[in-house]
């Protein structure tokens, strides 16, 4: 035996094959487990789901109001930065020599407004608040759809609660501060 063959023999991994039990005869499947029962849609659990629904609607409304407010502020501070230079470019040549300071005042005012807009970043806040208003409304809508079905046609409660609480926790954890 050559040294290469000995090296291969040392490195070779021996895998033992195991027999897999036939799934038809197995009792490990929850689908086949006659003792497993679903979590019932009772009043206490439905109240919990409706509480999440109400909270989602309240947060959606709050983020929507904050979004509208941020949009107004963004427009209020950004629009003069566009309009005033256009007006000043038309008016400046016609001003008497004694009124040249008006150009400086107008540009300083625009600089202050642009500085405030950049510092507060109302454009980004508007977008972010609007996005989370929609996400909370979507979750409330998902809950509405499921709860409007008769109980026998609903998704299993444990699965539904996991989906809803996970999504709500994600939204609560990543939503911007109001």
Give the SSE map.
Blueprint: H1 3-11, H2 43-91, H3 101-120, H4 122-148, H5 157-174
Could you please describe the fold and organization of this structure?
With 178 residues, the protein is mainly alpha-helical. It has one domain. The chain is built from 5 helices and no strands. Helix 2 packs antiparallel against helix 3 (101-120), helix 2 (43-91) runs antiparallel to helix 4 and helix 4 (122-148) runs antiparallel to helix 5 (157-174). The longest helix has 49 residues, at 43-91. The chain is elongated, with a radius of gyration of 32 Å. 12% of the residues are buried. Mean pLDDT is 85; it is low at 22-29.
Structural features:
178 residues; 0% strand; mainly alpha
């Amino acid at each position: 035996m050559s040294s290469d063959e000995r090296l291969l023999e040392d490195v070779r991994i021996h895998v033992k094959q195991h027999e897999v039990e036939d799934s038809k005869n197995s009792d490990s499947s929850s689908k086949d487990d006659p003792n497993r029962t679903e979590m019932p849609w009772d009043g206490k659990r439905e109240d919990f789901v409706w509480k999440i629904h109400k909270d989602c609607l309240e947060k959606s409304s709050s983020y929507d109001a904050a979004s509208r407010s941020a949009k107004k502020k963004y427009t209020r501070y950004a629009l003069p930065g566009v309009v005033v230079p256009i007006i000043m470019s038309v008016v400046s040549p016609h001003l008497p020599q004694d009124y040249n300071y008006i150009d400086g005042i107008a540009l300083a005012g625009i600089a202050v407004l642009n500085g405030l807009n950049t510092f507060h970043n109302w454009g980004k806040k508007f977008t972010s608040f609007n996005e989370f208003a929609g996400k909370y409304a979507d979750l409330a809508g998902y809950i509405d759809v499921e709860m409007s079905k008769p109980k026998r046609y609903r998704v299993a409660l444990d699965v539904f609660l996991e989906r809803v609480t996970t999504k709500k926790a994600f939204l609560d954890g990543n939503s911007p501060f109001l």
